[in-house]
Amino acid sequence: MTQFPGTLKSKLPRTGTSIFAVMSQLSSQHNAINLAQGFPDFPVSAELISLINRYMKKGYNQYAPMPGIPLLRERIAEKVKNTYGIEYDPDREITVTAGATEGIFSVISSMVRDDDEVIVFEPAYDSYAPAVELFGGIVKYARMEPPDYQIQWQEVARMLSHRTRLIIINSPHNPTGSILSKKDLLALEHLTKDTDIAVLSDEVYEHLIYDGKPHESVCKYPGLAERSFVTGSFGKTFHATGWKMGYVLAPENLMREFRKSHQFVVFTVNTPIQYALAEFLAKSRNYSELHTFYQDKRDYFANAISGSRFKIIPCHGTYFQLVDYGRISDQHDMEYAERLIKEHGIGSIPISPFYHKGDDNTLLRFCFAKKEETLDRAAKILHKI
Predict the structure, then answer these.
(1) pLDDT digits (tens, 9 = 90+) for 172-185
(2) Do 223 and 306 reside in the same domain of the chain?
């Protein structure tokens, strides 16, 4: 194939392939245990699979309404009320999306204009900044310092300007496993009061939070709820990441703008899965008890690698465990992660790609959403290093 003969000026000149794809491909090439990309290796609920099959056979295979089927939006509203005691109108304030990433992209596309400033907290999930840049926005980076990765709100206050359009938060946080507290949400509510600043709250791991700690959703704080988009993920919640099913919550005036973008990104999403999820969500235990399931996996992995030379960084949410390898090597985290795959047969994610300047703190991220036998094999390798 001959190449495009004209002048091509990239809209994302500094953006390469996602670190998740890079490390997963490398793991596959070397037949390594893949604790890199965040996907479970255990089965999706047999009941949920059966429901999808049933709705496919019943003929629910054509386009769903653009915002999502009404019953699923109603069930999402019920889930939010059951979990946080907050009411969202299923017709005007909830939209089903093609995964949380599409929801995040569509929020940014609907809100960010040329030279608008967007505050992102580093280390940051890698889809935020490129989406902002695609729509002409300027990313302003605030740092969360290891090992506890808490937000310094005084620093954020100094970053605000008349051009600040959006603040993106993520809790429970990928890649660090940290969570925001009530104090954090009150600080954000105070900073944004009487401003035109909107908030995008990435809460895809809302049901994966541990040690008896509550998930502090922005929807629980009236001053934030009125200016916030909240993204959720069925893929993360029901360990079916390949389905790419999520949703966005927002007050009606914000949702109206969101849907203008969403309709031209995907228009609508998988119809039979929507019907299946609506039925599955009717049983609240399918999501309300997940924290126990995943906390057991977190503890199992932590116990399995205790006594190794890898230092565990506390994890309060998500299904990712950070470890510090500084007692083993001073090699750059990208080089060390590649070395683990090629020489030891285990895949992880280095943390430096989550910083725009590639900060290296000798940290790796392992996904513990795996079967016990997978975690045992991984721990055996790590103990030998």
Answers:
(1) 999 999 999 999 99
(2) no
Q: What is the pLDDT of residues 333-370, one digit of tens each?
A: 999 999 999 999 999 999 999 999 999 999 999 999 99
The arithmetic mean of pLDDT across residues 85-96, rounded, is: 98
**What range defines the domain where residue 150 resides?**
62-283
CATH number of the domain to which 248 belongs: 3.40.640.10
pLDDT band at 196 (very low <50, low <70, confident <90, very high): very high
Q: What is the 3-state secondary structure (H, E, C) of the chain?
A: CCCCCCCCCCCCCCCCCCHHHHHHHHHHHCCCEECCCCCCCCCCCHHHHHHHHHHHHCCCCCCCCCCCCHHHHHHHHHHHHHHHCCCCCCCCCEEEECHHHHHHHHHHHHHCCCCCEEEEEECCCCCHHHHHHHCCCEEEEEEEECCCCEECHHHHHHHCCCCEEEEEEECCCCCCCCCCCHHHHHHHHHHHCCCCCEEEEECCCCCCECCCCCCCCHHHCHHHHCCEEEEEEHHHHCCCHHHCCEEEECCHHHHHHHHHHHHHHCCCCCHHHHHHHHHHCCCCHHHHCHHHHHHHHHHHHHHHHCCCCCEECCCCECCEEEEECCCCCCCCHHHHHHHHHHHHCEECEECHHHCCCCCCCCEEEEECCCCHHHHHHHHHHHHHC
Q: Are residues 349 and 309 in the same domain?
A: yes
Which residue, of 257, 283, 309, is where some domain finishes? 283
